[in-house]
């Protein structure tokens, strides 16, 4: 079976998380992703959070599957020459350098577009044009500036960041969509274009329900927030809502059997209107089916704390999986709080390729997250991340057409550093 993006060459000038997430998606879909890294150094994440000395970190290996690595000093004259040859050869250049860094390398959009009019230049920056456009930005900065932190956590606590990397991986995902859209546009325009995604904007896009609530506030309190039932007045900005659900159906995280010693013995429970009657039967409150104070979703809003306390008295008698089994029989929406350990061991996630084991020449076998997007005609085969510069010679020869003496000349110039040889796998 052919891969969906087979034939597309990506000059991957990304590092850390946001850009690599984007190019990893393109690589999973079959694009030839050529990761350009600084000789001797590479992507900074290779050495960050290392669990095994001198072995590429899981941070790096889990964000750079299915790519090839070439080391190239983009500030060395010979390196620049190779880089321009790559620009002529590739379809997409993806980068997430600090603002201005690409231009300082001499790679302006005008020059790139003139050299290869079909090339798409895709960039992640922390902020779009405006007062913060020159800032360097990491994940949590984007979560804070994009509206996530101010709306996450509990009302009586400080703003919270979430563990999901919505600033980095979320923006990479947005950028990948921009790239394939620009590739589609190119099929009829014949031209490449610039694709920009700011991390603040990507986070805000994922937080749009909170901007929805901001505007609803002008017309009265947010009745589905627990705060309403507790009689706490609303201020002038969307408040933090704890574990309330983001939609109109009240939901909470409730304790399950074992919560005293297991930090993840919890279930998310949604009191969806259409299944109110079975909920009442299960928790032993059949009277609430007809009692006017509980019978309708609107009537229940001021009593949510009492209702969830009663439901929790029931969930605490069951472990989270037992509770799921019972509630699912009645289509009551709920979800177990799964630990990373449970996810890593989940046979269903292994079977679908969402959790995959890969082998690596220096690290050995390790788990990674595979492609969550499943295409029926072009399934993803997850391949390990490359070693630093592992494919330098191969790319110079096979992609750029340099002969052996030219490759020697490039090596002597210092543009590619020491080329890494790996033992046969
Ligand atoms: N050869 C030579 N120089 C190279 C090179 C190569 N192959 N690859 C990178 N460099 C140079 C760059 O040109 C830059 O030099 P300059 O400052 O002289 O222009 C330098 O390396 C550092 O790049 P920079 O992007 O500034 O890295 P940083 O480690 O200082 O900052 C970030 C990291 C992530 C904060 C920054 O890149 C950034 O804000 N990126 C955009 C937002 C983003 O993606 N953030 C999320 C990261 S997950």
UniProtKB/TrEMBL annotation:
Substrate binds at residues 247-249. CoA binds at residues 17-18, 38, 96-98, 104, 136-139. SUPFAM superfamilies: CoA-transferase family III (CaiB/BaiF). GO terms for molecular function: formyl-CoA transferase activity. Keywords: Transferase. It catalyses: formyl-CoA + oxalate = oxalyl-CoA + formate. The keyword Transferase applies. Its EC number is 2.8.3.16. InterPro entries: CoA-transferase_III_domain, CoA-Trfase_fam_III, CoA-Trfase_III_dom3_sf, CoA-Trfase_III_dom_1_sf, Formyl_CoA_transfer. Pathway: Metabolic intermediate degradation; oxalate degradation; CO(2) and formate from oxalate: step 1/2. Gene3D superfamilies: Crotonobetainyl-coa:carnitine coa-transferase, domain 1, formyl-coa transferase, domain 3. The active site is at residue 168. It comes from the Bacteria. It is an enzyme of class 2 (transferase). NCBIfam families: oxalate_frc (TIGR03253), PRK05398.1 (NF003809). Belongs to the CoA-transferase III family. Frc subfamily. Homodimer. This is Formyl-CoA:oxalate CoA-transferase. The lineage of its organism: Bacteria, Pseudomonadati, Pseudomonadota, Alphaproteobacteria, Hyphomicrobiales.
